[in-house]
Amino acid sequence: MPHITVDYTGNLADAFDRRGFATALHPLVAKTIDTTVEACKTRFLRSDEYVLADGGPEHALVLVRAAVLSGRTPEAKTRLSEGVLELLREHLAPTPGLSVQTAVDIVDLDRTWYRSHTEPAGER
To answer: What Pfam families is this protein classified in (predicted)?
Structure first.
């Protein structure tokens, strides 16, 4: 926890610094919602089949969904979503001819049911 999924349209593949985004994102998340960088997990899903707006090729999208343990305040979630949007702008190169939509969704993982385990390196 947190589990972060970043969906992005294939027409942004060369313009989106994904590794730079994730390495800047993890400290932001840790600070904002009081967790650790080591707990953050981000995966990127490139979509080459999508329809945005009127379906024209000039549309692009990056959608970040962060699933965090329940109990965070609405203010912390707002700060996180705003910070993520700012980071996205910093890690997207100019894209002439593209209309780029960016969005963030913060969702709760129920503390009652959520479980996780990390196997230390070299333990198996």
So the answer is: CHMI
